User: What shape does this take?
Amino acid sequence: MELFILAFFALGYLVLAGADIGVGMLLPYLGRTSEERRETIAAIAPFFLGNEVWLVATAGVLVGLFPHLETELLVGHYSLVVILLLSWVVRDMGLWLRGRVAGAGWRRLWDGAIVAGSWGLALSWGMLLGDVLLGMGGPLALLPALVLAALFATHGLAFAALRLRGTLRERAAVLSGGAGEVRTLALTATAMAVVGVLAGLRLPLEPGTSGALLVPVILVMMPLLVASQAWVWWTFRHRVSGPSYL
Assistant: This one.
């Protein structure tokens, strides 16, 4: 049961948050002007905070149920984890601050933060998963990291194609053939999940001794998380028609 819980949260994060990371990576391609970039950001605005909950939950499950794995991943990859967290903070700062002050220079600064933070997240996850899957460290670790970053970007394109309209949708649908957004998103989501599963099979997944206390609590909370996520997706199921609050 502990393995199911860890896989549920970790794969949920990769599939859900992978989409908004990918959109952030390709923000300069999708949005050629400040107004287009703001509308592109509106595609992920209702989702990115909820998606981050899955990462927080994954970290909590690691600490509570898999203390040995938590030590291997977080302490054994300390530098990568620091870069990942900094990229997360920079990306979110860009999302929250770009629209708070009028001025083209201000918006360009925080648009750059969104792009840099998103690429930092994708490459950090790519290097971490590449090390777990292939045992590649040092400069060679950039090769699988770039491949996985390309997967993040493709996943983001598929998600953006489902959310945007007009010219923005046409740019995002470059891999979807114009009408296959759902199919493309399903394929990229499956690819993200497969990478996560393969990485999990390479890890020492030995639960700790606190499962008897924590597992029932987590199992009670899981349906609430799924229900809230489903409610958000249903509420914002329509395509973006203009800028959001960001």
Remarks:
- The mean pLDDT is 89.
- Residues 2-235 form one domain.
- The radius of gyration is 18 Å.
- The chain is about 75% helix and 0% strand.
